[in-house]
Structure formats: C-alpha cells, structure tokens
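Following up on my earlier thread - several people asked me to post the actual chain instead of describing it. Fair enough. Here it is, all 248 residues.
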Amino acid sequence: MAKPPFFPFYYQDFLTGTRFFSNAQVGAYIRLLLDQWDLGILKQKHFCVRMNGISEEECNEIISKFEPVFIKNVEGFQNKRLEQTRKYVSKINKIRRESGRLGGLAKAKQTHSKLPSKPPSKKLANQGIQILNPNSNINTNSNINTSFLEKIKKEAQGVGVDKSSVEKKPKQKPLTLWPEGFELTEAMQAYAIKKGVHDPVDEFEAFKNWADQKQEMRRDWPATWRTRCDNYRQFSSNRKPSTEDYFG
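Reply from S.P.:
Thanks for posting it. Predicted structure:
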C-alpha cells in the first residue's frame, strides 16, 4: 500500500516540544521527521547529513526525540509519535476508500432502479391525452374504454376511493436513552471524517459520556450522531487544544 503523501502537523504541540530548540535544530528536526515519513526508518547517516554544522550537545537533544528500533532486520531510529500518526492516517484512508466503494455501489443500484420501464401502449397514451386535454382535436382511437376514463376521473376527484387502502403515516419512534449495543460503525466513522472530525473514536466516546451524564433521550440516535458531526467544526474552535507533544 502506498504511503500517505501527507501527515497532520499539530503546530501547538510541535512548538511546545521544540520550545528550547535553536532555528538550526528545528530545521534539522523537521527534515528528519520528513525522512522518516518517507522511508519508514532512519539510519545514522540521516542524522549526520541533517545535523551537519550543529554542535554535539544540540545533536543529542534532537536524537533524544527518536528511539532505537529493529524492523525487518534493519536497525535504525523512529519517532514513536510519528509512527502512531502514520497508523491513524492509514486507518482514515482505509475508511474513506471503503466509504467511496459503498457509495459507488449505492449510486449504481439507484441508477439501475431508475431505468425506464416498458413504454405504455398507444391506446393507453391516447386515453391519457384525452383526459389531460378534453378539447384536443387529436384523432385518438375510437374504441377508447369509456368506463376506464370514468374510473380515472373519479379517482382524481377522490370519489369511490377506498380510504382504508391509503397508507397511514408511520408513528414517531419513542424517545429512548442511549440504546444498548449502539456502537460506532465504519459508516458512522466515515461520515464523521467527512465532516472534519479528527478522531471519530474519541468523539464518539465523548458523545456517549455526554448522553449518559445528561440522561438525554432521543428518537434516532444515529441521526443525533450525524448532527453532532455536522456541528463539529463550529464547536471544536471553542474546545481547549491538547498540549500533548505529538512529535516530542
């Protein structure tokens, strides 16, 4: 699977983790992170190239951000937090691909269901024309079934219609607390990501805690989740950002 061409850059956490770095250290550190994202694992030569011209003490500060690893018989170094971010981005991409696949299947099914059926017969078409335009001079079939026309007219006026056969509106769902077994599905995750939710799993957990604490009652909990995702961008700006050092 191709590596993602980007990774989330949490600037506040990065500023916190590199607060005491010099400009030269920051530049070297960013380039090492990019090398790791591209190659997966760093070797000693990468540190030598990126930190050329930096003092030994400054180099040690940067190296402390990376841990020794042994992957596929290759010894090297990795920034642990960056690898966690790689897994997170890969998971999101997988969900988006699956969401796109399911959306394509649904669209194809919908298109197929709209294919035109067998065209009406000429006789039936003529009857329809006469009903819509009784003053028309169109020479229609003289053998038009008059009882058929009368039936259509009566139905249009509501005469003789069996009201018991008319579909009744479905009753509203009852209000319920958080339903047992209501979990975050892939479709719900895909919808959340589409609406800009950075971590659907954490957001769903916060959603459940809110519902339990407030003893909220809803008729449609999946719809309530979608509404929460719709409003995520509006309210996320008021939330206090995390101070966790994502790359430190």
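The chain has eleven helices and two strands. That should answer part of your original question.
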